[in-house]
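forwarding from the other thread:

> can someone predict this with F0G?

sure thing
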Amino acid sequence: MSKQKHTDSAFQKCINFDCQAEFDTGRSLFKCPQCGDLLDAQYNWDRIEVPDKLSDFGKRWANRNDRLDFSGVWRFRELLDFCPDKYKVTIGEGQTILQNNDDVARYVRMRPSCLYLQYEGLNPSGSFKDNGMAAAFSHAMMVGAKSCACASTGNTSASVALYAHTCGLKCTVFIGSGRIAFGKLSQAMDYGAQTIQIRGDFDDCMRQVQDVCTRLGLYLLNSLNPFRLEGQKTIMYRIIEGLGWDVPDWIVVPGGNLGNSSAFGKAFYELKEMGLIERIPRMAIINATGADTLTELVNNKKLVWNDGKVEQKIIDDYYADLTDRNFSPRTCASAIEISRPVNLKKCLRSIDICNGVVRAVTDDQICDAKAIVGKYGLGCEPASAATIAGLKHLRAEGIIAADERVACVLTGHPLKDPNVTVSYHKDRQGQFCNPPVEAPNDLDEIIKLIK
Ligand code: F0G
């Protein structure tokens, strides 16, 4: 693989069919300056020396004292070649594992050896966000950003705060007051970010942060930033790697602001275009029922990508109805408590690319699934467990077969949200609860209690 870099290997492009305006990568944009729609990072693949086969990336494991080869993001750097190496930021993200788990498979009624769990909670800040931040902060360094900001349901703020102090950027994070899990709030404060709690929900924060960034010229790190999604593509490369450079039949992912699903579809599309994979897996995107905009729009209102000619009126009418009802999303999976997902259109494109399906699961189903991942796997936070609950649903419906190979993306670490876990077990909230047993300070009494 060549070490040579081309500054003209990438550009930004508006996804709107009627616009498709292009901009160079040296600009810091979070929406198309011409039409206001979403931007993609795009590549001149003929100017990039991409390896002939994906397994060539595996050779970089032998060179792990090179900081870029050590990164689970930059190990795949030819597939996100938008900035020179000298700007690339890494804190060791992407050392995550794909675990085959037959006990969880039994819970969702899948055959042994068919279910795989991709533990993105093993990242430095404890969530998948670090993949995207490695990429977005590299872009921030390339454009010379000095201050940055994000809105967050928690994990983005933790990850941004960590990368910001690593890169020497000033950092402000916006969170909905009382809306984020304590593990995540504790990280934002501990990593030194200025934390602004807005009296509102994530969607309010998302609106405010865009205006703040525009007014003050701050670098925005939400997934509106096209370079963030480039980093998140690497989660799929690592799943393929974990399967011996083979693609699964299904990817199951939680749906919140819809950055992941957008990035994953793009990753597979590009790999297929380059002939690096032969087929594209299907994708299931799982909402919580209390924050189910995607499910409503796709399954009930029949919103589709339609080659980029998305029927905006369906979205506008739906959002107007949310506003009329003064609707604010509610779910124990606070990470995905979002009703106006900013990447909606890109997600529709992924559904198109991956022949995707969308489902919503209840908080009870999420908490039971989370307990199962805790009991038989490495654990995860509630939003991540939506994947297992959704898979159970899709198995019962017969949409996913028992012998298909499925990879669920477990997006966050179990310690992100100890409150949900403790309530579930201690207050006996579900069928898999494991409450602590009160005991007197007496040896014989204690011994009687040991099962
Ligand atoms: N899982 C976890 C643990 C998350 O933190 C998020 C999003 C998602 C799933 C949903 O991913 O937005 O790509 O569809 N968290 C964002 C945040 C919104 O601010 O931390 P998505």
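The CA atoms of residues 203 and 340 lie 6 Å apart. thats all i got for now
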